[in-house]
Structure formats: C-alpha cells, structure tokens
Structure prediction request, 256 residues.
Amino acid sequence: MKAWLTVLGSGTSMGVPTIGCTCRVCESADAHDRRTRPSVLLEYNGRVVVIDTTPDFREQAIREKIRRLDAVIYTHSHADHILGLDDVRPLSFHRDGGIPLYAHAHTVPTLTRMFKYIFDNDYKFGGIAQVKLNVIEGPFELFGVRVQPIPVIHGEQEIHGYRIGPMAYLTDHSEIPSSSIEMLQELDILFLDALRHRPHPTHSTVEHSVELARQLKARRTFLTHICHDLPHAETNRVLPENVRLAHDGLKLEFAL
Prediction:
C-alpha cells in the first residue's frame, strides 16, 4: 500500500518568522525559512490522518487543500500541538460520528479542559467540532494500519512519537530511551526534533539528532521543530547526505 506524508509545519512553538524578530532567518526571502507549528499529514488507504492540530492548522489545511479529515493523533498537550483543534470544525460536520481523536492519558486532561465546550456535551449554541476522544493505551490499528506509540522524553515529561510502518515521527524530544530506540530500526523515513545548535533543556540539538540518525540508519531522516537559529539552505549544506531539514509543504511517499 502506498502512503504519502506532507509536512504541515516544521517550526518551533513560536513559529518562524517569530513575532517581533528581525534576524536574518525571520526576514529571509527563502520560503523554506517560513515555518508554521509542527505537524504532519498522512494519507493512505483513502484516509487522511493528522498528527497534532497546531495553532496554524487552519492556514496549513488551506495551503494543502485538505478536504477531509478521518482522524487526529496527538503527541502531547503543549499549546503548539493542540490549539488548532477548533479548526477541524468544517471538516467534522460531514463525517458521521465525528472525527476520532487519539491521545494518551497525559494529554487528555488538557484537551478536555481547554476545549471544555466541545467535550461537555452541554454547549447550547451549536457549531462545535464533532469529535470522539479515544485514549491510547498501546499500539492500535487505524484504518488497517498499526500505529506504534514511541515514548520519548521532553525535558522532564514523557510524551509520544509514533511509528506507522517504515515511518516514525518524533517531535519535542530531549532524549529517546533505549527501549524506544529498539522500536526505531529499519526505517525508511524518520523525523527527529532539532531545535537549534545550542543546547536546550527540552529539545534535541542538530548535532544530537544527526548522531541519532547515524545510529538508527533510517534511509531518510528529516529534522523538524526548527527555530529561527537555522537557515534552511545553509544548514542543509553541512548535514549528512541522508539528513535534511524538513520544511513546510515537504511531500514524501513511502510503502506501508
């Protein structure tokens, strides 16, 4: 089965350009240096699945001409990964039973608190997103494909990336446990967090993720969750041949 992945957003929590910043990346004329908040779109078996609904989801969906949405999978509860949930509304109105959301127990309380009007079932004014929340407790099947949660460490918090066939999407990690490394063998496509060169308490650096890519030996590795410290073209010139910065709108094909 063929599958397609589109990078909806490759930026960090404040996006690039960052509000109020006049650095050379924020003022770059290179479209690859425009980075909305981090998310990917998967298409397979006639279905459309998004990992995370960022604050930029509306812009991303319009840019990529998303016409349907069959499921959303969440990595964790930080604002840059969930705040676009309300914008699934127009896509949910035409799906019987609503759009299924998949989230771990560490994400559910924030989702249901921030979007109380969606989940309380007593909102009287209509027009809310039609969704159904499912709690992830381990690997699960989604439209005929196994989704494997991959625990990663984000500062002091355990969150999750996901492996779907030969593709793994890991964002917001400062460390990947050895037990998770074992789940990341024989990959075609690997996404890793690479915020910048300088160390950060909750995110990986370019150098650390390049070393992870070397260890894991994925055929293609893409770095995401990128801040305005990294010019796209300049950074790519010094990366290994099979490692590249992701960019908004990047499209990849792989076999499931």
